[in-house]
Amino acid sequence: MQTNKGKKRALLLFSGGLDSILAAKVLEKQGIEVTALTFESYFFDAEQAKKSAKENDIKLIVRDISVPHLEIVRSPRFGRGAGMNPCVDCHLLMLKVAKKLSGNLVNFLRTQKVYKILATGEVLGQRPMSQNIRALRLIEKQANLEGKILRPLSAKVLPETEYEKSGLVDRKKLEGISGRSRKVQLALAKKLGVKYFPTPAGGCILTDKEFSNKLNELLEKIRKIKKSDIDLLRLGRHFWVEKTRIVLGRNHEENLKLKKLAENGDILIEPKDIPGPTAFVRGKRNKAVLDFVKKLLLKYTKGADNELQIKITSRKQKK
Q1: In three state form, how does the secondary structure of 44-90 look?
Q2: 242 shares a domain with 114
Q3: In total, how many domains does the chain have?
Q4: pLDDT in tens, 176-187
Q5: One domain, residues 160 and 91
Q6: Within a domain: 164
C-alpha cells in the first residue's frame, strides 16, 4: 500500500478568481497536491470559489469567519482602505485560520501533518493596500509565518521561502508576476489549459462608499450585530430615529426581501390601500417612530395624501 508520508501537499488560500486558480495550477504542475481554502463572512460568500474549484477540478475547504471578521471590521488594528475595508487585518485573519488548519508550519520539513506548504494567489503590487511588499512582510510577521507563505505567481520577485530553499518547491517553475495588468495571467491561463475563470468583479463590498457609510452608522449605533443586520445594508433607503432602524424598500422586489428578513421583534409598515414601499423597523417603536415612518411613506408613495392609512405587521418577540 502506497504511503502519503512524503507526499507534497499545499493549502492554498483561494478566492475563486483567476490568480488563485493559476496559483493552484502552477503548484499542481510540479506534482504538488493542492487543497484550496476559502472563507465566508457576513460580507462575502464562497459561491464563486465553489464554482471555480468545481470547474477546475480543485479540492475546496470552506470556513466561516463571520464573527471574528466582523470584529476586525469594527476595529481593525492596521487601518482601513477608502471604505470600511480592513484589508491587512482581513488577510492576517485568513492566514491565521489557514495556519491552524495546516498544522505546525514552523517545523514543516519534519512534520507529518497533511499540508507542508501554505500558499496564496496574491500578486505583488496588484492591490495597493494589502499586496505591496511592506504589507506582505507585515502580515507574515504578525502571523508568525515569515518565510512560510508561498506566493506562486510572484515568487521570483519576492524573497525565497523556506519551501524553495529546502527544495520542497522548485523556484524555477514558479512565476514572477507583479503589477495590476492581467495580460501575463491571461497568457499563463492559456498555457496551463485553464478554460474557466470569472471576469473581474467589483471587489469587496467593504470598499463601496455607500455601503461603508451605512455600515459605519450601524456599528456606531448597535453593538450586538447579527447577519440580518448586515443583509439589510444591501437593501433600500436607511433612516434612524435614535437607535431604531428603519429601512424603506425602493421597489417591489426589495419590499419582498425586507419581509423575508423580518425577525421576532421587528415590524413592517406599509400603505394600506395603495401600492407603495414597505418600511422595515427594528428597535423601539414609539409614537415618534411611527409618525416618522408615516411621513416617509407619504413622501415615497406615489399618489399618497395626508389621509394615507397604514398597515402594521408585527413579528412577535420570543418568550
Answers
A1: CCCHHHHHHHHHCCCEEEEEECHHHHHHHHHCCCCCCCCCCCCHHHH
A2: no
A3: 2
A4: 999 989 999 999
A5: yes
A6: yes
